[in-house]
Write a structure and sequence with these properties.
single chain; DNA binding; alpha+beta; 380 residues; DNA-binding; 2 domains; 5-stranded mixed sheet; 16 strands; Winged helix DNA-binding domain-containing protein; 17 helices
């Protein structure tokens, strides 16, 4: 059966906007368990994602979930930052090691040691305290000089500096300021904080299967290319996992001719009327291969949301299940004014809807929204 993009979107929305009781730290953890990891290059993203998916949750509850390690943050899939449950972080650690392995090998050009030894050395250096990115970078340089003097690493560019903390085995937290700010990050070995994860690390195939199953449970239906893009894994690895999972999956066709798979017991489609303000890099876009994001956004509108000069995505506005505009909070202080732009030819979000959304944003992000400007975006 061929599913229309609207049908695919409706099936995803049933998982991405779960009905969760309560607004405490346990509810925060529950939403991330049901909706999946939140891409978090911007520290505010988990707070804004929860404002949309758990309206009424307050900043202190989200911060408490982070402080108690009910939800954790780390650099992993595709070299990005994600906020997730501890269980998902362990799976992403394994998949990151697989998906980023070739990049590490090209960058470090080891002669006498293995990547596993490098990663173990990094984790040993961050086992007892939170380390800055600079401290980890200096450690990696010194470790290679001592243990693999014949290596010819490229560590002085942005990619090289990232390798000191980006293999997936570390947690990340702000060393100053709150969880929703862009303060300097510290890194610590995940197993030192969360407990032993050796059983997960020892079964890479099982971890890949579990993470791809998680993707389908949170974002499905999905194609093999969606799964590969989101996880950072190669298509061969994804195909091998789908073969192992085949008895638990069902297949349909997407409008672009691709095959999408889903869990056999997945929930049915739902309508999501009304307006929601989503963070940059929201899963409604970033859980899918860029060519398949038509599920939630028209191609012309996607070109406006994705700023190609720097690879950033504008924070999208979801109206009646479609991404039809973008929004931003002006300035950097606690008192902020909101600007909303909606695309021509789409339904304008009602002011009352936006005010309800902004009340949720104010509570979750701990800001005071002092005004609202709504305008149709002018053609480029």
């Amino acid at each position: 059966m061929t599913l229309a993009w609207e049908e695919l979107a409706a099936r995803t929305l049933a998982r991405q906007f779960p009905a969760v009781a309560g607004r405490d730290a346990a509810a925060v953890e529950r939403v991330l368990d049901l909706a999946g990891p939140v891409q978090s290059q911007t520290a505010r993203s988990p707070f804004l994602s929860l404002a949309a998916r758990l309206p009424g949750v307050e900043h202190h509850a989200i911060a408490a979930a982070h402080d108690d390690h009910a939800v954790v943050r780390g650099s992993n899939l595709r070299g990005t930052v994600h906020t997730s449950t501890p269980a998902d972080h362990a799976l992403m650690e394994v998949v990151t090691r697989l998906g980023q392995r070739a990049l590490w090998a090209r960058t470090l050009r080891l002669q006498d040691t293995t990547l596993e030894q490098v990663w173990a050395g990094i984790e040993a250096s961050a086992a007892d305290d939170w380390r800055t990115a600079a401290e980890l970078h200096d450690h990696l340089r010194g470790w290679l000089a001592e243990h693999d003097p014949g290596a010819e690493p490229r560590l002085d560019d942005t990619q090289g500096r990232y390798l000191a903390f980006g293999h997936g085995g570390l947690l990340r937290r702000p060393l100053g300021g709150g969880w929703s700010g862009q303060g300097r990050a510290g890194y610590r070995t995940a197993s030192a904080v969360l407990g032993d994860r050796s059983a997960v690390l020892a079964d890479p195939d099982g971890a890949v299967d579990a993470l791809l199953r998680r993707h389908l449970g949170c974002h499905g239906p999905a194609s093999r290319r969606d799964l590969a893009w989101w996880s950072g894994l190669g298509l061969r690895t994804v195909d091998a996992s789908l073969s192992r999972l085949a008895s638990d999956l069902v297949e349909d066709d997407a409008p672009d001719g691709s095959v999408v798979v889903d869990l056999a017991d997945a929930p049915g489609p739902v309508d999501l009327p009304g307006t929601h303000l989503l963070p940059e890099f929201d899963a409604l876009l970033c859980a899918y291969d860029p060519k398949a994001r038509t599920r939630f956004v028209d191609a012309a509108h996607y070109r406006r949301l994705w700023v190609q000069d720097n690879g950033l995505l504008l924070a999208p506005v979801l109206v009646d299940g479609r991404l039809t505009g973008h929004w931003r909070l002006e300035g950097s202080g606690r008192r902020r004014r909101c600007e909303v732009a909606w695309f021509a030819g789409t339904r304008r979000p009602r002011r009352s809807e936006l005010e309800t959304c902004l009340a949720a944003v104010a509570a979750a992000y701990d800001v005071e929204v002092t005004g609202l400007d709504v305008a149709r975006e002018q053609p480029a």
